[in-house]
Design a protein that fits this description.
The chain is α+β, with helices and mostly antiparallel strands. It is built from five helices and six strands. Helix 1 crosses helix 3 and helix 2 (31-43) runs parallel beside helix 4 (84-93).
Length: 110
């Protein structure tokens, strides 16, 4: 059986943009997760998600994996971006869109 860290790495490697969240995009189970879903939706970026409430090992393991104490957590091309506040601030400043364009996920803004 794969270790929790290996499972998390596999989830992150499975898509260009991955959101570890409470609930699912259609039904977030916390306001912070819902806020990041809204940001990604507004940015027009396709993303995969993982409901940490469905797996207590991943729920705790992701915090160690990223060395970040809270959920949600956003990963872009395998790289940890941040949690809710960071993602919202990056989006407002245009930095998230720039990062996504730089990584080849979104077309650069015209």
């Amino acid at each position: 059986m794969a270790s929790t860290s290996d499972r998390i790495k596999s989830i992150i490697d499975g898509a260009d943009v991955v959101l570890f969240m409470k609930g699912v995009p259609a039904a977030p189970q916390c306001g912070f997760s819902g806020a990041v879903v809204q940001v990604l939706t507004q940015a027009g970026v396709p993303f995969a998600s993982f409901d940490v409430l469905s797996d207590p090992y991943v729920r705790e393991g992701i915090k160690e994996f990223s060395n970040w104490p809270t959920i949600p957590q956003l990963y872009v091309k395998g790289e940890f971006v941040g949690g809710c506040d960071i993602v919202r601030e990056m989006f407002k400043a245009g930095e998230l869109q720039a990062l996504l364009a730089e990584k080849g996920i979104l077309a650069p803004a015209q």
